[in-house]
Amino acid sequence: MTEAPHFARRPTIPVAALAWAAAAAAYAGMRIAVVLSLPVGGLELWSLAGAWQARAGFDDPRYVPTLFQAISAALLHLSASEIPSRLLALAAALTVPWSLYALRRSVGEPAAIVALLILAFDPLQLALGPAASLAAFDLPLAFGSLALLQTVGPRPWLFGLLGFLWATSGPAGLPLLLAAVVVAPRVRTMPRLPAAAAVAGAVAGIGLASAGFGLGWQGVTVPAFDAFALGFDEHWSSETSRRLFVLYAWGPALVGAAGLALAVLERVPRPFPGPVDRLLAAWFAAAAAWLFLAGGTHDPLLVAAVTASAALPAGGALVRLIDRLGEVDWRTAGWPLAAALGALLVIAGPLLDWARLDHVGRSSEIVAVVVLAGVAAGGIAIVARLPRNRPAAVLPFAAAAVVPWLAGGFAVATGSPNEPLPSPVTTLQAEEIRDIVTGPARDPAGIAAIHPELADALTWPLRGSRGLVVSSRVPPNASIVIWPAGSSPPDGFRTFEGRWALLRERRGPEPGFLDYLRWLANRNTLPVRDLEAAVYAREQP
Fold it and tell me: Do the beta carbons of residue 159 and residue 195 sit within 8 Å?
């Protein structure tokens, strides 16, 4: 009798490992694209200008300083480019996949993977995550804190480190901090030694921030609270926070809110039995309250806080939806759903035409759209009639949320020139002004005079230039004058021909539905508004 040949078993890769690898690759790839293509603008421009002023030894309210902004000021000694600071922000952002992986046992592995995909393509996370803003460490710190407390536990050294990092962070993580204080029992019953370590770390962080991390006394400073207050006054975005939410963030927030609402309805009277579940729900509620109360500000951080806090609840809700779709009776739900989706696709044609022409079509087209909308609504109603099939009725609404959200994520990642996130942004003309200020047109013995109205806009573009003076009058020893556009040339000066735009403000579409559709179909249709200047050089005798 001969033995059957023995074949060695080939190693297999678990499906979960492949899913994690794909999600992490998408997350990293989108952020690398942002580092390479996103223009410097919005909060990043404000933060870099403050870091440069601190590096140059000037007192400036734009230097808050958070730990990241202080490190950015140090990196500017090595290079005047934003790239080193962006690489540091990218490195911090790339810790988020590990954090979600560490949380997989608490929130469920499928939910953690889907949450990572949501964060990978979210426009706000893309615009702010790898950007060199004062809050670059905030959301990686939030997810990292949850992960470390789950994996390491309440060790004194960990609480000391987290106390220092939270004390020197920006405001985007404050909703999680508030949620932890309110709902996490471990915070209220913390042992003395870890509590003392956390307090010591926080005191050390506040002390360093108050000293400007060695760059000058700032007064007693808690960076997160100071930046939180600044967010009500500064224009870190051309659009209000509420408008940014409507343009980019309503999809993940709606899915996350729906997941939390279903948990409440299905698990009364204890909707969130685990401490992590309670903490995530309170985090989302705190971030949503911040957006509701401060939606009229021009602060994108609070919108980023909402999408970050919604990621894990939305991931759990989407996993539940996918599981429930496996129970749908597609024999009874398939045809009505197909009819509804087909009707919606047909409706999209005339709606996009109306958006392109900026007016509603003929009465016959309106009647056709209304009839097709009725067919779609009827199909969805037929599907939703049976409880077993109701998850399938969600699919048209899910598509309506996913398409504009993904479009926004890819537009931000590729640096679309008319995208209102970030805004305002620096221009190539501003860099050319720097060449003029440092070039042969300037008398080496003279100075460059900048009008006070343009000083903030030129802080970052003119970094490293010597002999700059901010003045509302032309100094007698000025050889270059940068004045508001439309002003007359000072006596003895000639005009540098050209259009000199210092900042470009990119606004979102008008509030109308057709305006929104036109923007979705063609994101290059938005108007831009420039802050222009006139550049003069002293005539040589």
Answer: yes
pLDDT for position 498: 77
Nearest in space to 38 (alpha carbons), one of 328, 411, 296:
411
- Please choose, from the candidates 69, 228, 198, the residue with its C-alpha nearest in 3D space to the C-alpha of residue 133: 69
pLDDT at 434: 87
Q: Do you find a cis peptide bond into 420, omega within 30 degrees of 0?
A: no
pLDDT tens digits, residue range 239-256? 999 999 999 999 999 999
- Rg of the chain, C-alpha, whole Å: 27
As a whole number of angstroms, the distance between CA 448 and CA 443 comes to 9
| CB crowding 434-469: b at 16 or more within 10 Å, else e | bebbbeebbeeebbbbbbeebebbbbbbbbebebbe
By residue count, the chain amounts to 541
Structure tokens at 356: 């392109």
What percent of the chain is modeled with pLDDT above 90? Answer: 58
pLDDT of residue 187: 55
Prior bond of 271 cis (ω within 30°): no
Mapped to the 3 state alphabet, what secondary structure does 364-383 carry? HHHHHHHHHHHHHHHHHHHH
According to the model, what pLDDT value does residue 269 have?
Answer: 66
208-215 long-range contacts, Cβ below 8 Å, gap at least 24? 208/70, 208/168, 209/64, 209/65, 209/66, 209/67, 209/70, 209/167, 209/168, 212/54, 212/63, 212/65, 212/70, 213/65, 213/67, 213/70, 213/73, 215/54, 215/55, 215/57, 215/63, 215/65, 215/70, 215/73
- Where do runs of H (alpha helix) occur along 103-191? 104-107, 109-121, 123-128, 138-151, 156-167, 174-183, 185-188
Amino acid in position 130: P
Which residues of the chain have a pLDDT value below 50?
Answer: 1, 7
Distance CA 488, CA 497 (A): 13
Contact 43, 128 (CB under 8 A): yes
pLDDT in tens, 370-402: 999 999 999 999 998 988 999 999 988 888 889
* Phi, psi of 211, deg, nearest 5: -85, 10
Three-state SS letters, 257-274: HHHHHHHHHHCCCCCCCC
82 touches 132 (CB < 8 A): yes
The amino acid at residue 523 is: R
Query: Would you state the structure tokens that stand for residue 524, as one six-digit string?
Result: 């290059």
The model scores a pTM over 0.85: yes
Element (H, E) at 205: helix 192-210
Q: Give, as one character, the DSSP assignment of residue 351.
A: H
- For 341, other C-beta atoms within 10 Å of its C-beta total 16
CB 251 within 8 A of CB 401: yes
